[in-house]
Design brief:
Length: 118
Amino acid sequence: MVDMKVFKLYADENFPLRTIEELRSIGYDVLTTFEDGRANRAAPDEEILARAVELGRAVLTLNRRDFKRLHNQNSEHAGIIICTEDADRAGQAKRISEKIAEFNDLRGQLIRVYRPSK
């Protein structure tokens, strides 16, 4: 069993619900933009990141290009976890957990989680 550090995460509106459920089942505190009343508003990525910072949560997103750009513009954030689309939601949650376990603190980090190559 991995020594799990439980980080607070903020999933943008396009992040797969099944992966969020899997992360929660292994102990992660994940808040979605929907639960935060910010879904279906076409909120700009900058607003999503600012809200995550306000809440002290790392962003979970599939929007790799835009959030990488935001990180490069300003790394003063609670963390950004960019993922590739992955139909294996349980595997995706496990890979996210394993990857972020490598860090003591997610603040200012841009973390990449890729689906395995076939």
